[in-house]
Amino acid sequence: MIASVNNLPKPDARAKSHFDAIVIGAGFGGLYMLHKLRNEMGLNVCAFDRAKDVGGTWYWNRYPGALSDSESMVYRFSFDKDLLNDFKWSTRYLMQPQVLEYLQHVADRFDLRRSIAFETGIAAAHFDEARALWLVTTDEGEQFTAQHLVAAVGPLAATNIPDIKGLDTFEGETFHTSKWPEKVELVGKRVGVVGTGSTGIQLITAIAGEVKHLTVFQRTPQYSVPVGNGPVSEKYLSDIHSDWDGLWRSVRGSAFAMGFAESVIPAMSVTEHEREAIFEKAWEFGGGFRYAFGTFADILIDPEANHAAASFIRRKIAEIVKDPETARILTPTDYYVKRPLCDSGYFEVFNRDDVSLVDVKANPIAEITPHGVVLSDGTVHKLDVLVFATGFDAVDGNFKKIDMRGKGGLSLSDHWNKGAASYLGIATAGFPNMYMIAGPLMPFSNFPPLLEIQVELIADLIEHIRQSGADSIEATQAAEDEWVKTCGDIASQMLLTKADSWIFGANIPGKPKRVLFYVAGVANFLAVVKEMKANDFAGFGLGYAAATATAEVDA
Ligand code: FAD
Ligand code: NAP
Predict the structure, then answer these.
(1) Cβ(146)–Cβ(18) under 8 Å?
(2) Nearest Cα residue to atom 30 of ligand 1
(3) CA dist 302 → 266, 332, 334, 336, 338 (Å)
(4) Does 204 contact ligand 2 (Cβ within 6 A)?
(5) N or C end of the chain: smaller count of CB under 10 Å?
């Protein structure tokens, strides 16, 4: 039985209880999926988001200093020439308000909001095998059905707050960076920040000097290079605008889709002097991905190359940070293999008198009290505000938060109990017609081009079902197992495994440790997809179970 919607006034989005497709999430991925399915394929679609508006990552992450470190020219959609030409930008990188404004513009331009139910979370999605339909339930208990379910729930959106004794006793204000309220007053306050990943270093750099005193609780030091943000020239912009096709061709022909030429030179093939000059040039120009992948081809592969890139940054830290003990604590000693970071003067911040660095690996946080943080040796840091920049249960976190059940009532969490799995990052065995955007084992790259590739692939799968006269499509278990193995094999040939991070799920206690990405790059991924399609969608199986099901629903 199809439950009816309640008596609330109904925007277009929830005017029906059955849809051809339901999309969960209205970030980059969900917005393009909605446009593709509704505006281009003519399907009847409803999207849901817990947020009050579109934007996803850029709706939620409003912390001071939040910036995209993919360059402005490629941190956008490529699918529409007019969209590319009519949304102007003037700096090499976009701050959070600018990305949010861009996504709002996308929603307006393609009239997407009328098909999105905001402030509506999806709690459950169960597959009805007899009718080949997804029964989707909101947090409030409303129910909807759809033939296709697209989960665009965000790769970096399931907030991770560490379980620290006494956290709920703190009498000051507590925030996680990814749930940052619109107005937060930090001026004149003693602020503590836990976490020094991409988020932490942006926040710390932005608020140092603004707050009364800043205490940084650092567990693992980070390699970071300058971001190099600033205004771009008219000539730079007109060159990009005159050859969008060339840019996107090069993006899709590269590994990381960042819009610059990745190096093909091994680091040890040049002299030490030349190597230093190349690193120095990259440091001056700015950009984490440019430093890691625009300088030499083998920084993630050859330990010597990695050592050279890492040592260069270590020497820079020693030059920048005046106090030798502070510099020691800030200097990483492990491999340079986490997601590349860049900053707007992070290490310089620690030369300020109103900033303290606390090494919580040497002296862990013991507990949080009403007035601040107490370390294991008894040191007390009194705080008015405590910020967690502690990252995410990345990639599979938000998928598992939904009570998702596929064939035979199999729950997604049970299916993934040994580690998140997929075929091509978009489908998982046992869950017909459920498509993931930014699902586990997607290519590791700049996201917008990748999300476009995934949306287009999902559209192809849906078209394939329609043309075959089938009513469902599903990744086979064999294809999924093979893809998991392929991704694991590729990662194990690189130095990536030398450091624990969210890329392997290692930041979440108890989470199975497995690479969460296909790290062979976008161009290779596209070649795999091309072959899969040429082989009649190899690895996917069609289902014909439910020819008469939709007669019951009120489409
Ligand atoms: P999101 O933008 O995360 O959107 C997911 C949406 O799904 C959210 O709005 C959420 O509310 C909604 N949702 C989730 N679960 C449910 C549910 N059960 N019910 C209803 N709604 C739900 N990537 C880059 O490539 N380059 C960058 O420079 C970069 N910078 C980043 C900076 C920050 C601070 C962060 C956190 C991430 C950054 N990323 C960057 C990664 C970024 O997440 C992606 O680039 C991209 O925005 C992801 O888009 P998405 O649509 O897949 O997911
Ligand atoms: P993150 O990289 O996972 O960093 C989390 C930080 O919190 C780490 O320093 C971690 O220390 C620390 N931490 C976690 N638990 C802790 C605990 N119990 N005690 C002390 N410290 C703890 O998360 P993130 O910084 O939010 O970034 C996640 C990803 O989002 C990035 O890699 C990037 O892809 C994206 N992002 C991008 C940008 C950008 O520049 N465009 C900005 C923000 C985010 P350990 O290292 O010791 O675990």
Answers:
(1) yes
(2) 68
(3) 9, 18, 14, 11, 15
(4) no
(5) N
Rounded Cα distance between 11 and 14, Å, is: 6
Q: What are the E-state strand segments in 119-258?
A: 122-128, 133-138, 143-151, 173-176, 190-194, 213-218, 224-226
The tokens of 352 are what?
């300020």
- Residue 204 CA to ligand 2 center (angstroms) comes to 13
The pick from 193, 194, 199 for probing ligand 2's pocket by mutation, whose C-beta has the most ligand atoms within 8 angstroms, reads: 199
Q: Of the ligands numbered here, which is closest to the C-alpha atom of 161?
A: 2
pLDDT values of the chain reduced to their tens digit, one per residue, 555 residues: 223 333 334 457 777 899 999 999 999 999 999 999 999 999 999 999 999 999 999 999 999 999 999 999 999 999 999 999 999 899 999 999 999 999 999 999 999 999 999 999 999 999 999 999 999 999 999 999 999 999 999 999 999 999 999 999 999 999 999 999 988 999 999 999 999 999 999 999 999 999 999 999 999 999 999 999 999 999 999 999 999 999 999 999 999 999 999 999 999 999 999 999 999 999 999 999 999 999 999 999 999 999 999 999 999 999 999 999 999 999 999 999 999 999 999 999 999 999 999 999 999 999 999 999 999 999 999 999 999 999 999 999 999 999 999 999 999 999 999 999 999 999 999 999 999 999 999 999 999 999 999 999 999 999 999 999 999 999 999 999 999 999 999 999 999 999 999 999 999 999 999 999 999 999 999 999 999 999 999 999 999 975 444 434 443
**Nearest Cα residue to atom 4 of ligand 2:** 197
Residue carrying structure tokens 């943000």:
229
- 440 in Cβ contact with 155 (< 8 Å): no
Tell me how far apart the alpha carbons of residues 312 and 491 are, in angstroms, rounded to a whole number. Answer: 25
Any idea which residue has 């984490």 for tokens?
288
State which ligand 1 atom lies nearest to the alpha carbon of 199: 34
The ligand minimizing its distance to the Cα of 505 is 2
Q: At what angle do helices 447-468 and 244-252 cross, to 10 degrees?
A: 80
Helix axes 303-320, 272-285, angle to 10 degrees: 60
Paired residues of 193 in beta bridges = 216, 387
- Protein residue whose Cα sits closest to atom 26 of ligand 2: 391
